[in-house]
Amino acid sequence: MNTSLKSVAAPRTALIVAFATVYLVWGSTYLAIRVAVETLPPFLLAGARFLVAGTLLFVWLRLKGVPLPDKKQWLHAAFVGVLMLLGGNGLVVWAEQAITSSLAALLVALTPVWFALLEWARPSGQRPAATTLIGIVIGFSGVALLVSGHNASGIAVSQNPWGVIALVLAGITWASGSLWSRYHAKPESPWMNAALQMISGGIALLLLSLGHGEPAHFHFAQVSTASWLAWWYLVGFGSLIGFSAYVWLLKATTPARLATYAYVNPVIAVLLGHWLLHEPLGLRAFWAAAIILVGVIVITLPKRN
C-alpha cells in the first residue's frame, strides 16, 4: 500500500472510529486465526478468506465504476499479494497451529523493524535515524527475552522453533511486499489495489494448499462452529472492514500516527488470547512484550529534522 499518500482533513469522530476499528479488529484477528486453525487447514482457510474478500471488493468497485486495472497493474498486485498474503499472513496462519496467538502477535509486532532495515538495504534507500537504530536494538532484545529459555511465553518455544522462524519470516515478507508496493506502479484506486492483492494472494494460498494436500483431507463435517465463525469474522471484519478503515486512514492521517497500529495490535491480541483462550501470560512474556513495544514505539515516533 502506498503510505506516501497525503493526509486530508477528516472529522475527529471518523478518525476515532477508524483507528478503533484498526486497533481492535486487526488485534483480534490473531485470536480468530487461532480458533479457525483448530479444525480448518491453514492455507485453505487463508486462501479462501482472501479470495472471497478480494472478489467481493472487486465486484463492488466495478459496480461503483472504478476502471479495470491493466496487465502491468495486475502483475504488480499479484507480486505484492504473494509476498504479503502468502508469505506474511500464510506463515502466521501456519505457525498458529502450534504457537499461541499472543506470541504470534508479539513477533509480528517487529514488522516496523523489518521496514526500517529493508528500506536501508534497498538501492538508494535511506539509512535509519539514530532513534530507529536504538528502537531496532530494543525490539530484538525483547524478542531474545521472549524466545529464550523454557516456557518464555507460556509455551516451550524450544519445541516450536519452526513456528517462531515462520513468524519472523512473515514480518519480513509483509514488509517487503509493502515497500515494493510503495515504490512501484499500481492502480490509481488503493481499494482496487487491495482487491487485486487479496485475489492474487488468495489464489496463491489455495495453490499452496492444493500442493500441500489439504483439500484431499478436508471434510466440512469436521469443521467446528467456532472455526466457521472465526473464518467469517476474518473475511468480513479482518479483510473488508478492518482493511477498509486502514485504507481510509492512509489518506486521513499521517503515516507516523497510522503506524501506531503496529504496537497496539499485539496488546489487544495478548489480552484477548489470555482472556478468551486462557493463554498463559508469565512474567517473562510480560516484560518481553513491554520491551518489544517500546522498541516499536521508538521506531515509529516522528523524526525531528
Task: Outline the structure in words.
With 305 residues, the chain is mainly α. The protein has one domain (12-300). It has 12 helices and no strands.
Q: What's this model, at a glance?
A:
This protein is mostly helical and 305 residues long. It has helices spanning 12-36, 42-63, 71-95, 101-108, 111-121, 130-147, 161-183, 190-211, 225-252, 255-258, 261-276, 283-300.
Tally of DSSP β-strands: 0
Distance between the termini: 25 Å
- What's the tally of helices? 12
Along the chain, the helix and strand elements come as HHHHHHHHHHHH
Low-confidence stretches: 1-7, 150-159
The gross shape turns out to be: globular
**Could you tell me the strand content as a percent range?**
under 5%
- Return the average pLDDT rounded to an integer: 83
How are the elements arranged and paired?
Layout: H1 12-36, H2 42-63, H3 71-95, H4 101-108, H5 111-121, H6 130-147, H7 161-183, H8 190-211, H9 225-252, H10 255-258, H11 261-276, H12 283-300
Helix pairs in contact: 1-4, 1-9, 1-11, 2-3, 2-8, 2-9, 3-7, 3-8, 4-11, 5-7, 6-12, 11-12
